[in-house]
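Hi everyone, sorry if this is the wrong subforum. Our group has a chain we'd like a structural model of before ordering constructs, and none of us has done structure prediction before. Sequence below.
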Amino acid sequence: MAYRSLLALGALDAAGYSLIVPVIPEIAGATGAGPATIGLLVATFPAGMIAGFWLAGRAVTRHGVRPVMLAALSLIALGSLGFVVAESLPVYFAARLVMGLGSAGLWLGVTFDTLARWPGQEYECMSRVLAAYSIGGLAGPALGAVGGVALPFTLYLALVLVAFALVLALERPAGAATFAPDRAALRSRGFRVAAFAAMFAYLVLGLMEGALPLHLAEHLSQAEIGALYVGLALIVAAGAAAAGSRRPRSMVRASVVLAVTGIAVAGAVSSVPLWIPALGLAALGVGVGATGALGLLVEAVDVGRIVTAMVVFSQAGIAGYLLGPLTGGAAAETLGYAALALVPAAFGGAVLAAMTAGPTPIQASTSGQVRPARRS
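Answer:
Right subforum, don't worry. Here is the predicted structure as tokens:
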């Protein structure tokens, strides 16, 4: 029961990321915002997450997981309400910032509760959590495609209110692992490679969700964009789940090739039949890359002292999600959508260079290995 609840909470969190994607053309049309401004609006959510990770990391060690998740859900509900009751771009910016703060707390709550319940099985369990986040991406575009701005966020707010019951029903597991901060982990090369790989994977996701929807709107309606992103979320989920049984370094390398190729084609063409397979490649790259990056982290850092490393790793990933729409929106507005490929190509090349610089030390977990997970 606990595992299913955690997966459901992860899916709900992810829906908040992608909910805005089909709504972007509606916001742009109502406010007159261009690609750069819309990129900033999308980036406001991860900006809130970066600050939220630091706050939630401290709160988890002091107060435990449940209070952090309840506070996180409260912030997400408040931010969603801003889109329901207001029709103002400044309010939208503030609302997405608050939602980002809450999302950070929910992610860390789900992560640390998962690590505590299944010690020694971290990589496999977290690959499933990432898959749940990807599946949650299905709900976001589906809700966003119902039309307008207020209605999608009203429906999401209703789901958030239901989630309070899931958190309250979670019981502390017997013999749960404890976590401690350790800044020394940040100095290891293995951690830095893992964080950089996470930044790349989520940068590509940010490009897909923040920079490309206006390009897609040239030939697709709001509902069609929503349907497309539902399909892409399925591909991300499949990639994330499948990567959990494979070597993390191989998955990160594959992520770079798939994502750069997909974004390059999607930005260069203006054809729906070509957009679909191109974005499918990019989505697969995001899924395998996110799981691969997490695997590198678990290999490099002792899980019992992973708090600081997990906070900074999460911040790096969301920094990539923030940079995606910022850099992509600026590139599209100044050079055209064909220039989007320059962004993942530069970051992806740097990730591959970092991975080939030397061997990565492995320190898999408190038990010394990553074992297949058994759900309870």
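For your construct planning: Residues 360-376 have pLDDT under 50 and may be disordered. The two ends are 8 Å apart (CA to CA).
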